[in-house]
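Researcher: I'm preparing a figure for a lab meeting and need a structural model of a single chain. I don't have an experimental structure, so a prediction will have to do for now. The sequence is pasted below. Please return the structure as tokens so I can convert it later.
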Amino acid sequence: MFRLFCPLISLVVLTLVPMVSCLENGTMAKLKKFVNCEPKNYKPSTSIHRDYWVLENYVMAGHGDIPCYANVTYTTHADYTYLDNVVPLLERWRSPLSLAIYAPGTDFEPTIQSILYLLQCHPGNVLVRELCSFHLYFEVEHLPQVVLPPKMALRKQANCGGPPPYENVVKTDMYRARNSLDYPVNLGRNIARRASLTHYVLASDIELYPSPGLVPAYLHFLGHRVIGIPGQQPDSPLVHVLRIFEVMANVSVPNTKPELQEMLKSGEAVPFHMEICEACHKGPKLEEWINAIVVSKDLNVFNVGHRSEDYNHWEPIFLGTVDDPAYDERLTWEGQRDKMTQAYAMCVLDYQFHILDNAFLVHKPGIKQPGKRKAIFSQIHKTNGLINRKILKELRMKYGSRKGCVI
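Model: Understood. Here is the structure written out token by token.
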């Protein structure tokens, strides 16, 4: 969708080079000069973090070391039942993907089988092998029976003649369900982001697919509009927000904003989760963004928002950096409000939320309807108590407070 988009030469000879080499030398020189980052040592590692084993870079991407300033990493989390999203996401992203997978107990083996299927059997396996780094984590109290060294695990042969191991899973039969384990979503988010080899990241959810060509367009945008321009540096930190939408199950994900606008008019697309939590996702000037006439295919800032006043429950997903506030790892998916602590910190730090035009995220096809909350009411109640009694006090001690900033 972007004028600067550089199509990959061939999936057979896929590398990251075509994705960034089309950028002008001046843009790359600016990024190298003004992005404050140091290269990381890219290798597998094992550690205990809090009450969890973390296997970072258990499966490494084929791209190897890349300059920390010269790309953007999509950082996300999942259990193995969501791995059907990996290839559709990569087909649109075409840049590094850092994926943390929760795999306690006997969920570990189907997780490995699912990864092997993606690497060996899936028609998009070249994308996976070249771009995706897999990290695994699980509680110390819920160890798998066997954890092979990465090289040994990757020598195993996947069953390419059968269905993908991540499809048609009865979730109540999973180890996590049988042992009533909450999903540690924020730990996964932090693991994936910490493992990023690049300074810039898109910390998102695996079912949210980006508009194609976003990475080179964003790097071009940074080099020409944001960094290294005398007198135009912001007084407070900023991130670049992507609007989010849903589409019907029987349609294709739109590639451009004009395509998206037509689908919104026809009812085939809707803004994200407006029936579930409008205050969490609407943000400022959503209607104006939707109805604006597209006059340029280039990436630009449509408007600037803050997470305060009328938008103090907004949960934007954004292109940021590895230095943005972390997620509180005590919060789980079942307890909800899992991104609110990070949003509070960013509010107090007076982050500017620059909402991008001509770029967006679309949820995996299928519009979600409001569901019943009784099954997770106890977790929600527990989370609310933890935030009100403890976490909010800690955040105020660490970041301070600011009028209009709430959790």
